[in-house]
Amino acid sequence: xxxxxVLCAAExxxxxxVTVVVPALPAIERGLDTSGELVVTGxxxxxxxxxxxxxxxxxxxxxxxxxxxxxxVFGTASAAAGLAPSAEWLVVARxxxxxxxxxxxxAALSLLVAHAGDRHGxxxxxxxAVGAVGGGSGFLVGxxxxxxxxxxxILLVNVPVxxxxxxxxxxxxxxxxxxxxGGLDVAGGVTVTAALVVLVLAASxxxxxxxxxAATTALLLAAFLAVERxxxxxxxxxxxxxxxxxxxxxxxxxxxxxxxGSAVVVAAGFAQRELNLxxxxxxxxxxxxxxxxxxxxxxxxxxxxxxxxxxMRAGLxxxxxxxxxxxxxxxxATGPTGxxxxxxxxxxxxxxxxxxxxxxxxxxxxxxxxRRGTSSALINTGAQVGTAxxxxxxxxxxxxxxxxxxxxLAAAIAVAGLAAVRKPQFTASPATPYDGARDAx
Length: 441
Fold this sequence. Notes:
Blueprint: H1 2-19, H2 25-32, H3 37-61, H4 63-82, H5 87-116, H6 120-148, H7 153-156, H8 158-172, H9 186-203, H10 208-230, H11 238-242, H12 244-273, H13 279-304, H14 308-329, H15 335-364, H16 372-398, H17 403-417
Helix pairs in contact: 1-5, 1-6, 1-8, 3-4, 3-5, 3-9, 3-16, 4-5, 4-8, 5-6, 5-16, 6-13, 6-15, 9-10, 9-16, 12-13, 12-14, 12-15, 12-16, 12-17, 13-14, 13-15, 14-15, 14-17, 16-17
């Protein structure tokens, strides 16, 4: 059980790396006389962009080795960010933090699934719940640390945490089999990484910059596909394109985060602008979403009964219903009634996400053990891209004050995700139990 706890802690550190910075942005902007936007998008761009390459490296070099390297990069970059003398220094350090997280997450998830054995579904449920805890607590932790010790400590605190995590991985987590033979598709890795980085940046841009980013992303993806057709050992194994379990899981991961990420952002604006809640009051209302994700994650293994497609389908339906309920229930509600309706809708939304996310992760990581790093990376890439693109598209179409339209669009995204699980034959065989004798990584 201890290895599972250590590996889930890596996911907690990653999620906190994103959310803990948000309440500190005003203080960072005042302290370094800059806009805080790149502090967030720099991390997201390198994290989302490097996931596939990092997952493939884990398959080749060994996931424990890559996880330890990622922790080292993340901790070192955290120290550099906390000591940053300028805005430029801070942004570069945050980009390096994102790169370290990209190495950590596919490796940690692959190791978790391998160590869990026939408790695959429960381990994934714990992983999802821990991510929800990080998402909910990050805003509170970031605010408290900023008020008590200053914004630099939200970054410096990662240094001892990553040291302890690295020690735990080195002593408690055993290596798992890695893919033998072949080389690394450098050209494929560079083009797909560049495409994903530009995509994440384009999603946070507007006007001509967004159009240029979308066009550049399309060109880079076309170049990536051309490279992959000719590569002797492509970064995405040929089977990844035809594996219905993995493609379905990745698509649902994208839809999960696109629908819920956009709905939560709309809810945050509604809470402060329409219900006149303070930032901390709005944060407390949003905790209902994170608490429900934990509950949904815990229920998912029982609800799916070895059929993760059922969990995905049920979760998407619940998410769509929750978004519709938010659109209807808050249309005319004000004061405590509006706050209660918002919290209830967010709780239903979070429960749906918890169920669907466990289903998609369980299904996507049920493939060959030596390709699990790539599988984990694709699922996480789908989730990362879904958040960035979903929020950008929904806010762009609905407008900053179009709350009802925003929730209706989120519901439509969730319904569209059902197409990825329309076939009933998806099953997930139990993960192969760990056999450390086959790897020395």
